[in-house]
Each structure stands twice: as structure tokens, then as C-alpha cells.
Amino acid sequence: MAIKILACVDGSDASVGVCHWAGWLGQNANTPANISVLHVIEKNRTTEKNDTSGTLTLGAREHLLDALSEQDAVRAKQLKANGKIVVQQARELISTYSVGEIDTIFEHNDIIDSVRTHMGTHHLLVLGQHGTQHMDGRTGAHVLSLMDMVQSPILISKGIWQIPRNVLIAYDGTKGADKVIDFVVHHVQFGQMTCHLLMAGGQPKLLDEPLRRLREAGISAQAHCELSENIQELIARYETENAIDLLVMGTHGHSKWRRLVKGSTALRLLKASTRSILIIK
Q1: How far apart are CA 65 and CA 220, in angstroms?
Q2: How far apart are CA 40 and CA 52, in angstroms?
């Protein structure tokens, strides 16, 4: 059965990375992969809030409201035309990868509602950390909401795209961490990369079994166990020292790793890590 990947694009620079990651995941999936490109024109973007209070007479106020209504209609047409360009360009970029069907979804809705609806028929979500509303580098609020809501794997694209060569797997010996190993071994071809297993504290012997599984699957792998109270700093340092391209981690268990993908701690993780993040649920 083919897997279905949902790629969220908005026309910002972040969308380029989203398309590359969606295409790369689809091309390297162990089963055929179809990709849906989702572009949502959010309701609050088609209309601007305008203050019509003050000393305007009734006739003048009605004239102003008519003019604003016309402006909103023009803006809506512009957003729709731009949206068609966005999804077409995304489709063309993803088509450079060897994937199955590529379809486009173009909606006027709330992004959270749209993703919630479509993830009922998709298996993996790809989105950018920043979007058109956060061009200054801040993390979009939608990202944190979707991290909590979506129960399927999520890849959050960050920075400039490059073919991943080194992958960091956060491991803590829990069932959630073993699900990450399952995903790497069975769902995506990681054979041309080096996987770094990283444990923060704990018993180093817990790394033996996942290390064996990765190597038996033909994946180059190495394990590291380090003592650190600040997980965000540990990740940032390890990523830099080992030229990591992708961080992969789970959400189950009761360790420090799990707390990284919840609430304000998740925001600190997104700020600390400069690499794209794949979260397995």
C-alpha cells in the first residue's frame, strides 16, 4: 500500500525545503509514496481589519465600507491567483524526485482545520518552521499546535535544504525510542547515511540493541552516551560537531527527550536545533 505525504506550502522560502523533504522522503520510502501539496489561504488574510469609528457621517461611513469591501475582493483574487502559482511551483519541484502521484489541494480555511481533515487520509506531514507570517525567523504558532495535534510522523523543515548525510537519533531506551528505530529500519532508506544514536545519561548498554538493528539493516551507525542536564544545548553542540542534517526523535516515554516536544519546551528545541526535525509518534 502506498504511503501518502502531506506537504504544506505557503510560497515563502521555507516552502522550498518542504518540497525537497517531501520529495526525498517519498523517493526513499520503502513503499510507493504519493504526495499531496496543501496550500491554505487563511480567512484572516483575505480581509483586513479597519477602524471605521470616529467622526464620519453615516453616508461617508457607508461609502468607506463599500470601498473597503471592494479592496477585500481584489485582495482575495490576488491571493487566489498567487496560491495557484504556489502549488504549481511546488508540484514542479517535487516532480524532480521519483515519487508516485502528486496532487494539489487549494483551500480557503484555517490551516489547523485543513491539516486535521487531510491527515485523516495521509500518513506523514511535512511543514516549514517559518512561513510568510514569520519572515523574521520566529517559529509560527501553527507549528507548535500541529506538533500537539497530529498523531502521525511530522517533519519540520528548517534552514537551507541539502541531501541528508548524517542523521541524529535521540534515544532513551523507551518504547517510543524503539518506534523511531522501527521507522528508520522499515519505512525510509537510510542506507546511504550515517545514523548517530545519542543518549543523554542512562545506561550505555541500552544502545547495543538499536545499534545492532540499524547495522543489520545495512545502515552505518554509531552510538554516543553523554551526561547533560541541558538537552537543548547537547543537541545543538552535537549537531554542529558532527555535521548533522536531520534530527529524529519520538514522543513517548517519560524521559527528558519526550518533554522536548511538548509546549514551551518544544519551542526551545526548535530554537536550539538548527536542523530539520522528524518527530515519530
Answers
A1: 65
A2: 29
pLDDT tens for each residue of 191-214: 889 999 998 877 889 999 999 999
DSSP string, 147-164: HHH--S-EEEE-SS----
> CA angle 7-104-72, nearest 5°?
95
N-term to C-term CA, the chain: 20
Across 60-214, where does the E strand assignment appear? 102-108, 124-128, 154-157, 166-170, 194-200
Mean pLDDT, rounded, for 151-173? 92
Give residue-wise pLDDT tens across range 117-152. Answer: 999 999 999 999 875 554 444 445 688 788 888 899
Give the DSSP letter string of 219-237. -EEEEEEE--S-HHHHHHH
Q: CA–CA separation, 248 vs 270, rounded Å?
A: 13
Rounded Cα distance, 6 and 105, in Å: 10
Contact partners, residue 256, CB within 8 Å, separation at least 6: 172, 200, 231
pLDDT at 81: 87
Question: Are 115 and 8 a contacting pair, CB within 8 Å?
Answer: yes
The enclosing H or E element of 8 equals strand 3-8
Residue type, 264: S
Cell 505525504 belongs to residue: 5
Residue 1, classed as helix, strand or coil, is coil
pTM comes to 0.84
Distances (CA, A) of 75 to 85, 90, 181, 276: 16, 22, 47, 33
Q: What angle do CA 129, 241, 15 make, to 5 degrees?
A: 20
